[in-house]
């Protein structure tokens, strides 16, 4: 028997995430009605995942539910915001209840981890497309944005770079990547949004972005929007063991420099704030590295990159870019 | 030459709609940053239009830009909210600059009419899918919701019913419907969200919904969520000349009762508020009719419906419903 749109919403998405006191009216009416905290800015981000473009057909729906929310939370992290609410627009080819159950479970688990409530949505029929919008709050005096990097700033990156892209290269689009024990696959399918790190950096860092399109592309956005340039030192890039081994074997640095889907934070900060930022990251137990410096000359340059180390890749992942 | 995702956003969507003072940071960063007015509730709605499901391939992109925003604004209208911001997640099969230009123009014209600024978005490659989220404000003491209808309430409807569905039936999916001079087609492709009417009804009506899935289905939502029933009088339904002629000719009442895409408001209110509501609607120059009454018995019943007048249609338009 066909399940109506209304029943889909009711069954799988009515009580998703953490129930919040600021939600006056959630899923099930024309609009969600929400109470915003006084004196805070509302931070809003929207992102879409398309089957066959952002993930392979057959990808574990539980992982998709996680990732669809994670990539949005990552944008809030890059703004230094605290997450609050999400909405979900889900376009589905058919009404597969097992798929819906797993997807909503993956979404809900991550939502609960960050105190997010799903407050509204729309389900439509069509090619599998998942759009999530998240909203959160940020202190007006502690906003992280892309266009505030200044010459002399140090450039920092959380976590390690390139693992998701390496997983994809090793064939972990649907199943775990060969010989990696699943760690790389986790990085591809269940990225961990750096919410705590973003909040800690708010008020300390000058500029920040999340690394979704690759380090060179995303740091490039900071530079162009700030009217500055960047010099990064290849030897300082944070690499996982698997990533380091791959580079040693192939000599190819393109993955950590241009691979997308990392969802780490790249930020810039005044050098005198180095001890404070290091202490904050230590407090959170978060790995991070200083990888270079902001300068006057436009563009992003790499120090220590061997010739031919960027095999055929000119920039980060761009959906409409030159293939 | 391929145009990158970033350039698409920059070129077509950077300055869309009315520039608003409450937008601290708009399109182009990880998040939009917005100032919310103190003491107001935030109203949020998200809706998706899918090619081949909600509109035909080849539909005028300018009309699509209008409609994608209009169907969302209609949800704000049903909540009695004043629109403020929109975000747009656009999945496109290719980078057709003429299409993008027309789409963004249609979106922008309607946005400007209601003082809405586009504050963020995502463009991805894939089958044509358009998701818009709108946000607005509403007075906490004047909220319109679905679950507040009470026995004895009168049931009102703005505008006329069934025109969009009739246009579709007459073949106006892409071109104007035959012999209607384009008026029906306008109703299908450029629905007018009843924002002013919703704001006027806020604080007067008990319950409201926008008629997107058909009168029976949407009034049915009010009834089931309020724990009441409705009795509507067929002879009171507001019909355009074309709709009345079609019923006279075919004897088929299914279109005004179950046809979707009207985006009129259906609301319920205490009978003693009749003069006040009529005065408000008169002030706005808005057509509206009283069509029935809320009662205790569950379900939606129609008085005066001839036998066989609902040809083969059991309910409103539901994407996953029995075809």
Compose a concise summary of this entry.
Chain A has 323 residues and is α+β, with helices and mostly antiparallel strands. Chain A has 10 helices and 12 strands.
Which helices and strands occur, and which strands form pairs?
Two copies of one chain form a homodimer.
Chain A: H1 5-13, E1 23-25, E2 32-35, E3 41-50, H2 61-78, E4 82-92, H3 97-113, E5 117-125, E6 129-138, E7 154-158, H4 163-169, H5 183-189, H6 195-201, E8 207-210, H7 215-226, E9 229-233, H8 241-250, H9 254-258, E10 265-269, H10 274-284, E11 288-295, E12 299-303
Parallel strand pairs in A: 4-5, 9-12
Antiparallel strand pairs in A: 1-2, 3-6, 4-6, 7-10, 7-11, 8-10, 9-11
Helix pairs in contact in A: 2-3, 2-6, 4-5, 6-10
Walk me through what this model shows.
The structure is a homodimer of 323-residue chains. Chain A has helices at residues 5-13, 61-78, 97-113, 163-169, 183-189, 195-201, 215-226, 241-250, 254-258, 274-284, and strands spanning 23-25, 32-35, 41-50, 82-92, 117-125, 129-138, 154-158, 207-210, 229-233, 265-269, 288-295, 299-303. By secondary structure, chain A is α+β, with helices and mostly antiparallel strands. The first copy, chain A, has two domains: 5-141, 2-Layer Sandwich (60s Ribosomal Protein L30, Chain: A), CATH 3.30.1330.10; 144-303, Phosphoribosyl-aminoimidazole Synthetase, Chain A, domain 2 (Alpha-Beta Complex). In chain A, the strands form three sheets. A six-stranded mixed sheet of chain A has the order 8-10-7-11-9-12. Chain A has a four-stranded mixed sheet with strand order 3-6-4-5. In chain A, helix 2 (61-78) runs parallel beside helix 3 (97-113), helix 2 runs parallel beside helix 6 (195-201) and helix 6 (195-201) runs antiparallel to helix 10 (274-284). Chains A and B meet through helix 1, strand 2, strand 3, helix 2 and strand 4 of A and helix 1, strand 2, strand 3, helix 2 and strand 4 of B.
